[in-house]
Amino acid sequence: MLVPISWLKEFVSFNLSAEEVAEKFTSIGFEVENIIYQNKLHNNVVVGEVVEFSKHPNADKLTVCKINIGNKIIQVITNVKILGGEIVAVALDGAVLSQNFKIKAGDLRGVLSEGMLCGLKEISLSTDDVDNQLADDIIRFKSKELIGDNVFDALGYNDTILDISITANRGDCNSVYRLAHELAVVLRKPVKEIDLTFNTKRSGLLLDVENSNKEICPRYMANIVENVKIKKSSKKIIRRLRAVGISPINNIVDLTNYILFELGQPMHAFDYDNIQEHKIVVRNAQNKEKVVLLNNIEYELSDSDIVISDANRPIALAGIMGGTNSCINESTERFVFESANFPRDLIRKTSKRLNVRSDSSARFEKSLDYSLQEIALK
C-alpha cells in the first residue's frame, strides 16, 4: 500500500525522516518495500528565468535563450515563443523525462543548447494535477523566488511515499488512518481522530433499499445527496490520489477513492436519476445475467456473484466495480453514496473467476471492520 507521509501526519505528529518512519513500521511487522520521493521522479528539472533571448542564426523558428537557474546562467534553444522574463521549467543536461527521454547538452543547428524547456507531460503531470497551466505550453511560474528550485517542489509535488506491505492477517491496517494508529503506538503519540460532524437537512428524495440476503451482505448503508455540482477536485485531493496511484476523475468519484485509502472502506456513488424506480436491491446475480462495468467490459455473471441492482438491472458488481449505466457524469445533480460490507470469500471468488480486481476488491478480500461503513458514510 502506498502511504504519503504528509497524510500520516494529519493523524499523528512526528518529525522523523522517511527512513526513520520506515524503520518504525518495520519494527512492528510492516515491511516498507520502497521509499518514493516525488521530487526525484525526474531529476535535474529546475525553475529558471529567461533573462535574454535572440533569434537562432541558422533557424527562423528557433530562439536562443539565456536562462538564470539560480547558481548560473545556461543557454537553451526552444521553438516556443519567448517575450523575455518568463519563469519556466528547465530540464538540464542529464535529466531523464517521461517515456525515458534523456536530455543531453549539444549543438542544435550549430548553437549550443544546455537543456530544454518543459511542459507538464514531460514531467509526467497533466492539467488535472496543477492549476493555471496549459496542456500544450511550457510550465510557467509567477514568482522569481522559485528560481533554482526543483520544479516538483515549486509545483507542490514534494511528498514522500512509503510502499508498505500489508500482510493477510492485518487487513485492518489497509488504510492511512489505521497505519497512523500503529505508528502512534510505537511513537507513544496521541492520534487526532476524524471529525465526523456535519450539517444536513432531510431531503424530499426517497430511495428504497432491499437487502435480500444478509449472508451475502451483512451491512448495507446509503445516503442521498442533492444540489451537487460535478467539477474538478481540490489540489490536495488530486495530489493525494496521484501519490497513491489513482487518477482523478471528478469531485464525487475522487471522494470515494480518497475515503477508500484514508479509512480502508470501499464506497461507490450512483447517479440517483439513473437508478430505475429509485430502488436498490442487493442480491445474487442470475445465471448469464450481464453487466458493463466502469472498465467498459461486459461480464456474464453467475448466481454465485453479488450484484447491486436497481428495480430492473444490475448497476454494480458488489465489492468490485460499479456499472456504466449508473455512474457519476458531468450532468449529475443528485447521487447516492453506498457503503457496505460483503463476505471476503465471495468477493475473492468472483474477482478471480472474472479476472477483474480493484482497490475495493483488495480491501474486501481481507475483510472489513463492521464499524467502518457508518464512519465512512459520515
Structural summary, described in words:
This protein is of the alpha+beta class. Helices cover 20% and strands 27% of the residues. The chain has nine helices and 23 strands. The protein has helices at 5-8, 18-27, 151-155, 176-187, 235-243, 251-263, 344-354, 359-364, 372-377; strands at residues 2-4, 32-37, 45-55, 63-68, 73-78, 87-92, 96-97, 101-102, 106-108, 111-113, 115-117, 140-141, 160-164, 208-211, 219-225, 267-271, 279-284, 290-292, 298-300, 306-309, 314-317, 321-322, 335-341. The strands form seven sheets. Strands 3, 4, 5, 6, 11 and 12 form a six-stranded antiparallel beta sheet that branches. The chain has a five-stranded mixed beta sheet with strand order 14-17-20-21-22. Strands 1-13-2 form a three-stranded antiparallel beta sheet. α5 packs across α6 (251-263).
Total beta strands: 23
Give the overall silhouette.
Answer: elongated
The largest sheet, given as strand count, sense and whether it forms a barrel, is: 6 strands, antiparallel
Which range does the strand content fall in? 25-35%
Nearest-angstrom radius of gyration?
25 Å
Extract low-pLDDT stretches.
none
Mean pLDDT: 94
Helix content: 10-25%
| Head-to-tail CA distance between termini | 24 Å
The SS-based structural class is alpha+beta
List the total number of helices.
Answer: 9
